[in-house]
């Protein structure tokens, strides 16, 4: 029976689950051909993510099926339940397969760790201590001690290099901090100088404005005096214009003196 004729949402979920199950089948087939342990681990993680998504979709399918159960016929409900069980069964088979591969990968990691893998260690592990002479045992022990000493020396060198780099970094940071402090002090000095210069410019501006006012007043006074003198010289008998003290003509002063005597 076509699920789209029953419920579009159920048909959509069924299609998504089918796509994921096909992807899981192809993914596990691909996993069989991968030999590298790290790549197999990444592939297995990707398949695990797909299985989680498939499980979520099956739960959504079940929830939608429960909501439509009262509106469907018993045969339809039985068919939908069989479809759900088929999905769960197929997903569980991939879950079991995933556990099998995960256990195999874990065993391989343990084997690699215990097996060593360094130069000459694989062959040496094959030899049992009971089959080795005392000289061979001593040579093997000395070689292992030498290699351990070399490893310790390399580690010490790495630590010393790290300490030196840390000291150089600390010195550089200290120098940069001092330089930043000097720059901040210089900026404060510049700011103070700019502030003082601004105040001085304002004071000079006010002084210049005051001087201009004084010069303008003096100019007006001088022009007034010149105007009075010119008018007096042109029309000396004009009584409306008083003489400026100290600037009256001598003849005019004598005439005024005689008139006053009379």
From TrEMBL:
Chief site of localization: membrane
MF-aspect GO terms: SNAP receptor activity; SNARE binding
SMART domains in alphabetical order: t_SNARE
InterPro entries xref list: NPSN/SNAP25-like_N_SNARE (IPR044766), T_SNARE_dom (IPR000727)
Cited CDD domains: SNARE_SNAP25N_23N_29N_SEC9N (cd15861)
Keyword Magnesium: no
Transmembrane regions listed in the UniProt entry: 214-234
One GO cellular component term noted in the UniProt record for this chain: ER to Golgi transport vesicle membrane
Entries under SUPFAM superfamilies matching the protein: SNARE fusion complex (SSF58038)
Residue ranges of coiled coil: 44-71
Membrane topology annotation: Single-pass type IV membrane protein
Segments forming domain T-SNARE coiled-coil homology: 142-204
Keyword Transmembrane helix recorded: yes
Subcellular location as annotated: Membrane
Keyword annotations of the record: Coiled coil, Membrane, Protein transport, Transmembrane, Transmembrane helix, Transport
One annotated GO biological process: vesicle fusion
Similarity-based family: Belongs to the novel plant SNARE family.
PANTHER family per record: NOVEL PLANT SNARE 11, VESICLE TRANSPORT V-SNARE PROTEIN VTI1-RELATED
Protein name, per record: Plant SNARE 11
Protein's organism: Acorus calamus
């Amino acid at each position: 029976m076509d699920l789209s004729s029953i419920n579009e949402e159920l048909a959509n979920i069924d299609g998504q689950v089918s796509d994921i199950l096909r992807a899981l089948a192809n993914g596990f087939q691909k996993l069989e051909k991968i030999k590298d342990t790290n790549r197999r681990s990444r592939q297995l993680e990707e398949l695990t993510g797909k299985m989680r998504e498939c499980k979520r979709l099956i739960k959504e399918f079940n929830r939608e099926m429960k909501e439509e159960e009262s509106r469907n016929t018993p045969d339809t409900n039985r068919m939908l339940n069989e479809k759900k069980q088929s999905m769960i069964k197929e997903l569980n088979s991939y879950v079991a397969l995933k556990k099998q591969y995960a256990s195999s990968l874990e065993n391989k990691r343990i084997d690699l760790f215990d097996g060593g893998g360094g130069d000459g260690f694989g062959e040496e592990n094959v030899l049992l201590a009971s089959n080795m002479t005392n000289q061979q045992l001593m040579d093997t022990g000395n070689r292992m001690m030498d290699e351990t000493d070399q490893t310790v020396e390399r580690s010490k060198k790495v630590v010393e290099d790290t300490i030196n780099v840390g000291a150089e970094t600390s010195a550089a940071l200290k120098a940069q901090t001092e330089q930043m402090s000097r720059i901040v002090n210089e900026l404060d000095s510049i700011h103070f100088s700019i502030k003082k210069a601004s105040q001085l410019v304002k004071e000079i501006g006010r002084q210049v404005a005051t001087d201009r006012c004084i010069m303008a007043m003096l100019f007006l006074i001088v022009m007034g005096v010149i105007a009075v003198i010119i008018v007096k010289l042109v029309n000396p008998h004009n009584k409306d214009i008083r003489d400026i003290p100290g600037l009256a003509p001598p003849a005019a002063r004598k005439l005024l003196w005689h008139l006053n005597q009379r």
